[in-house]
Amino acid sequence: MAEKKKTFEENLADLEQIVTNLETGDVPLEEAMEKFKKGVALSKSLEKTLSNAENTVTKIMQTDGSEENLTDDKTEGKE
After folding, report:
1. Phi and psi (nearest 5°) for 60?
2. What pLDDT is recorded for position 59?
3. Is residue 26 situated within a structural domain?
4. CB 45 within 8 A of CB 11
5. In this structure, is residue 50 part of a structural domain?
6. pLDDT of residue 1
7. Rounded to 5 degrees, what are φ and ψ at 39?
8. 59 lies in a domain?
9. E-assigned strands of the chain?
10. How many domains are there within the chain?
11. Which residue in 3, 5, 19, 47 has its CB near the most CB atoms, within 10 A?
12. Does residue 58 fall inside a structural domain?
């Protein structure tokens, strides 16, 4: 059976658990190294997901179906 792809929130919870485990210092070195590697991979995956979401959110759909970045000159500098 294929493994279900975890959600962003599930991956974030996994990363938080890894950080908590590593911070306690009660993890054997070999296990700590494996957890660290998994944490780095999760961090990169989460960062990619956030970047993709940000790119999607910063676009606005035009009436003709085209997309326009909200960060064009029209909106830069406005807060």
Report:
1. -125, 135
2. 78
3. yes
4. yes
5. no
6. 58
7. -65, -40
8. no
9. 59-61, 67-69
10. 1
11. 19
12. no
Single out the residue of 44, 76, 46, 40 nearest to residue 58, CA to CA: 76
Residues near 45 by beta carbon (within 8 Å), at least 6 away in sequence:
11
pTM for the model: 0.68
Which residues constitute the domain of residue 22?
A: 8-43
| 18, 42 Cβ separation under 8 angstroms | yes
CA nearest to 6, candidates 20, 14, 54: 14
Measure the CA–CA gap between 63 and 25, rounded to whole angstroms.
56
Q: Mean pLDDT across the chain, nearest whole number?
A: 84
Confidence of residue 41 (pLDDT cuts 50, 70, 90): very high
- Quick check: 78 pLDDT over 90? no
CB-neighbour burial class of residue 18 (10 A; exposed 0-12, middle 13-18, buried 19+): buried
